[in-house]
Each structure stands twice: as C-alpha cells, then as structure tokens.
Amino acid sequence: MASPCTGLSLELFGHVSEYQQVTAALTGSTYQSSIPFNVGTYKYVCPLEATQFSNGTKSNVYGLVTSCYSAIDSRDGQKYFLRRVHNFRPATSKVNWFIEAWKRVSHPNLVKFKEVFTTREFNDPSTIFVYDYLPSVTTLCQRIISTTAAANPTARNSGSVPKILFPETLVWNYIVQLTSAMRAVFHAGLACRSIDVTKILVDSHNRLYLNGTCVQDVLLCEHSPNITRPNDVVLIQQQQQDDMKNLGKVTMALACGSVMALLPENFKSSYDLIFTGGQFSDDLRNFINYIFTNVNVRKSLNELMPMIGARFYAQFEASELKCDQLERELVKQVHNSRLMRLMAKLASINERPEFNLDSSWSETGDRYLLKLFRDHVFHQVTEDGAPWLDISHIINCLNKLDCGVDEKILLVSRDNQNALVVTYADLRMCLENSFTELSNPTLTRATVDVNAGSGAYMSAGGGVDRQNGLLVQGQQQQQTLSFSAAGSSSVGGLHSHGSSAMVGGGDAAMTSHHNSVTVNLAPDATNVEGHGGIMVNGIGGQASTATIHMQAAAMYNGTV
C-alpha cells in the first residue's frame, strides 16, 4: 500500500518522515549558553545526550569524559556527528597514521569517520572526532534495556539476568552485520576497539552500525609513549583478538537479552543459560564457545563462517530485497520529479500577468496553446458540470507532453469558439520556446546582422556569438538602428533613426533621440585587429525586432 501524498510505500514513507522530523528537531533545538554555536567549520552545535557529563563521569570504553553533538559543516552543508573528548589534546604526530587509515575504511555497517581536530571553544583543550550523522538510531544497550523493560518491567533494575527475549534469528542478524564490519576493519590492518553495546548503533529496521572508531587509537598513541610505530603488527593483532572477545560478550548480551549478562558476577549464569536452556541452536553455542575457550589460541573470523552458515545468505537476500524496494521507489520519485518540472514550467507561463511590458504575452502565440492544454489536462468537467478529477488522465497527458509524442490532441477554448488540433510534439516545442524566452529575457527573437571589418558575415538570434574579434550580446527591440564606423581612434559617419535617442562618445559629432534607447559609443574601448574599437551599450524598452549593421571591428554589448 502506498502513501496517497508521495506514492511511497507506507513503510518507507514512515521511515523517511521520521528521518526528516528528527533531523529538523535537532537542527532547531534550543541553544544552550554552555555550548559554543560554532566549533571550527561546524555550526549549529546541538547536544545529543540528556546529560553533558557535568559531574565528570568517564566513559567505560575510552576512560575519559566524552560527549556527543550534531552540527552542520559550513563547507558542504551536511550534518555530522561530533564526539568530543574533554581535556585531551594529542601531542604526537603518530596519530596521523591512524587518522588517515580510518578515513580510507568504508563499510555499510560502519559509521564513516571523517576527520579529527582540536579546539578550545569549550573552554578546555578538547579533541573532536567527526563521523557521518545517523538520525533516529539508538545504541544496542538502549535497545536491549528497552526490550527487557517492556517484557518485564519489575525486573528492570533487579540486576538479574532475565528470560531470553531476543529471537535467535535476530541474534544471527546482528552477528552477520557485526562480523562483516570487523572483517573490513581487519582487512585494512586496523582493530575496531569499540565493540561494546554502548558503541553499536541500531536503527528501526535492525540495521547495525559500529560507531566510535579511531578514538582508542589516538588515545593509545598519546598515553603509550613506548609505542615506536603506530602500525605495529603484533600490537594490532592483539587488539583484534580483544575485538573477538568483545564480539562474544555482545553475542551473550543479545542471547540473554540483558546487559547484566556482561557483569563478571553474572557471566557464569549467563553462560549456563545459553548452553543448558535448550533454546538456542548448536551453531550459536559453538560460536560463543569458540570465542571464550582456548584463550591462548588466536581466533579468526574465517573460523566463524561455518557456524554462521546459510544464515549469511538469508541476510544477503534480505539486503538485496531491500535494495530492489528502494530502487523501485526511486524510479517513482524520478517520474514524480520529471512531471513536477513540467508542471512548474506550465505554471510559470500560464496566466502570467505581464512580460516585457506586454500584458497579452501569455494569451498569444505558443502560450495560448499551452493555456488550452492546461485546461484540457486540469480543468475538464463532467456532463453535470462537476470537476473531473482523474489522476491517471493528468499523468498520462503530462507523460506524453514530456516525451513529445506525435499523437494528436484536440484543444477547445473555454467559450467553444476555437478548436485546434495539435500534436504533443508541437506542444512540447511551444513549452520549451516559451520557457526559454522567460528564462533569458535578454535574448531576442529578431536577428542581429554584423558585417565585420574582414568581410565576414555573422547573424545571431541573441546570446553571445564571436567571429573575427566580434562580440554580440543583447536584446533586440522594436527599433531599427543602422550605422557604420571607420577610423582607428574616432567615430564618424554615424546615423540613428527615430526619436528620443542619445548617441555620444569619443569624437562623435551628433546627438539625436529614439524611443527609450540609449547608445554610447566609446572609440577607444577596445582595439581589434588594428581597427578602432567601437563599444555600443544600450538599454531598450519592449523587445521585438531590431537590425544592426556594423562595419569595422566592433563590440556590441548590452540590451538595445
């Protein structure tokens, strides 16, 4: 079922609406005096957390006080996620290797890292890590807590491990996405170091994103001066093994449906719940058992693939189906935007009160046909005089107009006195010509003829044309001007027809008048091929026709 307003499926329409509402709400959030309005090139800084760690609480993952914001980058106008590390400023250049390495890592289950910079806008030496902004997401920790609280409100703060709440299919869904992101990071020669339920983001469609990368690497370089080089292979391999262990912890929290399962005092009971409860498959038990047993043996993501098995294909098929759905919706919106452009052009032309001081412009020529076509598409009535509202008729007519088909159509005026048979191709040409005339009011319909000093001939219907050092740009008028010029530094033999024109400049020795036309001649304005340069600038009234003849190298520039 589709939304009647946009044509999108209701599910996708709801998702897009939620995205827009959250983004707009955050952009328009109330300004807080304790938060700077601008931080570097980022403006409209808005906090994303209820508390700003005023009590100095340190992050369990990073070991320092951190806070999160959204902001708009003035360089590209896009919104980004800012993670601020309080009272920290890296002083070693070894962090640059990690920063550049993380910029190159890209994966659909990884929040893209953009840059890092330092600032004192918060009245302390803060370091800002910048990532792509994802609205309407929550942490995996919050998802687990909210699910547990909804199922068993009385056990929310009991500290015990509740009954299993997450279905195994959802657990495997998260495992596939998380291991896929880890594989991309390991392949880049890095370690995630942020696999924690508080740093994993989930959207309303169970899409998982690994967040907070690069922070631990920068902190490590600063707090471990004994590290001689940042890309130490042995150190990174050890960090990757820590990622594997954290993957097992996250899996246990999901399987048990509680973050309390990660506490040391609850670990054994959580482990027994998974292996003795009989609610999970052998593959999931083997998955967790592989990670937590034989701690001295190096673990590999490749060894986990047999346990994931065909579930990987199910995840892949779901992603492909989602892509197909989005592509279908995109095709609809492409058609919508195409028809919208047509309607915008028609609305700009039809019933225009005046154009170039001509109040009848929209009622004559090509515009009259477009007016009749507008009535044919939108203003038809039934036999009893009621409006005939047929969306399929409107879309069909607009599609034929956009394609410019040769199909003929009968257009009848409102008083039934005029009936015209035209093709959609004719109407398409009328639309483009009329809209082009509106879009380029300085262009003309008549022809400007120029005879250059070298004997070459050029005609232009407006716009800019060059040949043999000649520039023609302007708008034709109802008047007719003809003149010739000769000489290297002066103007002579100039003649202008009409009244109310003022001609002057250089050595010109005459002044006459023409209807609301001003012509200025500057013989020393340019010098083309040794000839005396002539510049003609004019501002005219209502455009219609004009013919200008020039002899000698000249430049005509303006609206005549």
What would the principal axes of the Cα set say about the shape?
A: elongated
Spatial strand order of the main sheet: 1-2-3-4-6-5
The percent range for strand residues is 15-25%
Task: Let me know the number of strands.
Answer: 21
**Domain unit count:** 3
Instruction: Examine the coordinates and then state which fold CATH places here, giving the name of the CATH topology of the largest domain.
Output: Transferase(Phosphotransferase), domain 1
Assigned CATH architecture of the largest domain:
Orthogonal Bundle
> Rg to the nearest angstrom?
36 Å
State the fourth-level CATH superfamily of the largest domain.
Transferase(Phosphotransferase) domain 1
Tally of helical segments: 13
Distance between the termini: 58 Å
What descriptive keywords fit this protein?
single chain; 560 residues; alpha+beta; Transferase(Phosphotransferase), domain 1; Helix Hairpins; 3 domains; six-stranded antiparallel β-sheet; six-stranded mixed β-sheet; 21 strands; 16% strand; elongated; disordered C terminus
Tell me about this structure:
The protein is α+β, with helices and mostly antiparallel strands and 560 residues long. It has 3 domains: 31-309, Transferase(Phosphotransferase) domain 1 (Transferase(Phosphotransferase), domain 1, Orthogonal Bundle); 333-439, Helix Hairpins (Orthogonal Bundle); 445-560, no CATH class. 36% of the residues lie in helices and 16% in strands. The chain has 13 helices and 21 strands. Strands 1-2-3-4-6-5 form a 6-stranded antiparallel beta sheet. A 6-stranded mixed beta sheet has the order 14-15-21-20-17-16, with no helix packed on it. A 3-stranded antiparallel beta sheet has the order 7-8-9. A hairpin with a 5-residue loop joins β12 and β13 (457-460). α4 runs antiparallel to α6 (233-256). The longest helix has 39 residues, at 311-349.
